[in-house]
Amino acid sequence: MRRKRLESLKVIGDRVLILPDQGGDKTASGLYLPPTVTEKENVQGGYVAAVGPGTPLPDLESGDEPWQSGGHTQGVKYLPMEVEVGDYALYMKKFAIEIKYKDENYVIVPMSGILVVEREDPGVDLSQIMGE
Description:
single chain, mainly beta, two-stranded antiparallel ribbon, 10 Kd Chaperonin, Protein Cpn10, Chain O, globular, 8 strands
């Protein structure tokens, strides 16, 4: 993934900024997208460039209703994101909003529009699960 500086660009809420993959239909680690999926299902892949803080949660400790306190809370808490910068994400194109920032094309996708991510992580040894 090419390194770009996103100095003043901040992603809000449960959204993800993705640099769409312009390359082939296979990632370096072997994730393969057949042409039928990319054409028929409108699935696209790309690298996560930035993530928002997550879904804001209500402040249950104050006991007040948000409109009674003037809408201000002491500290906003978030449900954390499942994706990380550097992940390779497969997302539904119909949820993507295209933007251009510093001469680079990106898409903004809500967390719910992401199908799966590939992460440089050893993860689970499937041979133990599958009995191999």
